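hey so i finally got around to running both of the ones u sent me last week. sorry it took forever, my laptop kept dying halfway thru and i had to restart like 3 times lol. anyway pasting them below in the order u listed, first the sequence line then the structure token line for each. didnt double check formatting much so if smth looks off just lmk and ill redo it

first one:
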Amino acid sequence: RLPVWAARPAFLHHLRRRPRLLVVGPPGAGKSTQVPQWCAEYALSLQFAHGQVVCTQPHSLAALSLALRVADEMDLNVGHEVGYCLPYEDCCISETLLRFCSDEVLLREMTSDPLLRQYGVVVLDEAQERTVATDLLLGLLKDAQRQRPELRLVVLTEPSLEESLRRLYPDAPLVRVPPLSPPPCLIYREPSPQGRVPAACQAVLELHQQEQAGDVMVFLASEQEIQECCEALRLTAASLEVLPLHPGVGRQVQKLYEMWEPPAGGPMRRVIVTHWLADAAFSVGTVRHVIDTGLELRSVYNPQIRAESQGLRPISKKQAEARRLRAAGSPPGTCLRLYPESFYERSLPALPPARITEANLSRLVLLLKRLDIADMGQCDFLDRPAPESLMQALEDLDYLAALDDDGNLSEVGIIMSEFPVDPQLAKSLLASCEFDCVQEMLTLVAMLTGTPLFPPPHSVVPHPRSWSTF
């Protein structure tokens, strides 16, 4: 029985009586799978008079995975009663009652229907991820409810964001979800001179050698390191079922939740190798051991040079705690941090920076202009963007001829806002019509925005015998 079920009576009580509701609990408590089903039950009790139920996720892969899992739990068909809508894939019909989508998809729906009249309940899941789209939806939905009092808004988050959300929604009741127990045992280890990937592989093999029950989840910094780790483990231990988890795995993600019995003479344990994607999403009940390298590779936009760059940086204390709780439950698990406790105390920030403070805001400003929000001060933000970033975004849009002399959207800007890509790429597509290279430009934009088509080359990994003692 998931911990979230203890909060079900209070949740349904407030959902019937209040327009907004905050649900706060640790990862792995069952919020993402159970709360949307309860909202569907509430909407069904009203015969869906106010609309369907939509649940957003910060990552498209999480929305796809949840739709498949919830449809299986409700014994319904994906693409019919339960569906999902991603930036490049729509698996819904007009009769879909419970829809899972990425936060960007719902944000784009608001450009054509600012009041979201087809929905009666909106669930914003994993709000603590602080993506640009989720932060903006928190403010826009607050305004939409003033004109649609019957619209229900449910925000699911971890305790780290509770104080900020209480300031944004001071009248919203709070429902707390109890944590999983008992908590996992925490172990620190000095970093290995051989690097993060060999150290993580060595730790997996040590756990496997000790024959401790449960699956293993390994947190690395990037997709390249995930690939290297998976290759090394497959070469070293045939008795391990190695499963990568990153945005490129697609529907293969459902292997995490399949009923798995170790076959006779086959793999005896599963190892899930992932990165920041699983900080909050993708809870797997069989995981009893977590290995955390404490670093992540993130893209940050620099408005001064108008460029985005990737950098390796420490995760936050909140992320480290969320990763530790992946091993919570019974029997008690373990969390091995491949860095010393002094690094945790001194180098890890308390919270990760909000994405709205690190992203290129040109697309955000174009969307707000489309919603007739001329002044950024009219929109509620948990963390207001830096003024220089907003000015830079306005200058970029003006350079692309998306704005007229009064600062409003031009005809070109209105057309650009219809494209689900960055303004620079949208303008390139429009310009390609003039230069008779539409097909070529479509190919380039698809390659730049879609899932990578080329698998990464096989990285040079030290031979397992050079670092393994088994």
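and the second one:
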Amino acid sequence: MPTAAANKKRKADAPAEEIEDPEHQTLEYINLTTHTGHFGSKPIKMNWGAETPQERGPVIATVKHGGQRNAIGAHSGGYCIYTALAVAAGELNPSHIPNLAQTAPVYEFGPFPSWKNPKSIVTIDPWGHDVVSAFAPYYEKGYDIRPTIAVTKAHIDFPEVKDAIRLGRVVPDGTILMEHGQTMVTKAAIEPVWYLPGVAERFGCSEATLRQALFKETNMMYPELLTRTDIKLFLPPIGGMTVYIWGNPGTIADPNVPLTVRVHDECNGSDVFGSDICTCRPYLAHAIEECIKGAQNGGNGVVVYYRKEGRALGEVTKYLVYNMRKRAEGGDLASEYFNCTHRVAGITDTRFQAMMPDALHWLGITKIDRFISMSDMKYDAIVNSGIEIIERVPIPPELVPADAQVEIAAKVFVGYHGGDKYSVTEEDLKKVKGRS
């Protein structure tokens, strides 16, 4: 497995002696109230969107450096609670510092122009996969800086790909697709790092309004959102995303190399267990097949898998909606598909695709030749972020499960791109009905 050094070695542009010594806070003492300018509070500088990592500064979000933290929240998203349980149970030493030897990314992405634009990427640390190299002077000083991105390689064994081989839709080539159906990918796991001024701008609100909403709607879990307005970074307690790449990672950013892309939001019931009430797994399988074909033909394929279960409303809410749909008077009607979600959740979707293109900008993508999605919201978000999309590819009708006809009809009717495969009138919508 190649290491980052096999690609290119970054050069730190600030000597360690110019960086202040790290604090080593005693973990027995807890400061419950912190304010801007509080005694002993001196966050490490953060100049989001700077030209170099040293000019920008590292993300400091561990508990060891006290007043030098420049991020609110904790690493690993919601999994930080399990870290706390491990500490409480005496199984994990809270002073542990990860040994990052031999963990370098198998491919070192970037830097791309989008990394240096504070508006292009506001929910990911673009240097998060390369912190050991990019912030070497801080490590020399003894700082505990954690990667927020990890890049590795894998063999993917997806049953539908084997079906595609059997049916002759794809042919093993021994490089992208193996004889027994395994595909070779490069993949990157990404934890969210929010630059709050940039996130607020995406949503058309003030930073203060965003901070207040985050504080209130997390039941006041993060008082520093209000008391530490000097800290601009937030590591939210949410799931991240995983990027899967078929082909050559080094040419993804080249607009002359054909690129197939799907951005897919998590659906555990369908993606993992095969529930037939939606098109999630069939569309994901189709995207993987198209990515394989694209890579075999000299291009690349990318699937970005976002942890946004149930349109980011959560699986409990999703199942409540399922019950309402199936028990509705008149049956599970396509005309009531979105209304049922709104009655339960008060809103139909909280995925807010305005943040979604950041992963594509992290990869340096400027043009997508084939976009495997019908979503108007995803398409609009990507195009509005400056990425060109040439072709939109609907899911083939034969891949849509019978009970998912409700979903596909409802979505096409409200604006999802059906191409020449789907067309739904108001009269058609009233006729589409799922099983009880």
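quick thing i noticed on the 2nd:
Residues 1-9 have pLDDT under 50 and may be disordered.
anyway thats it, ttyl
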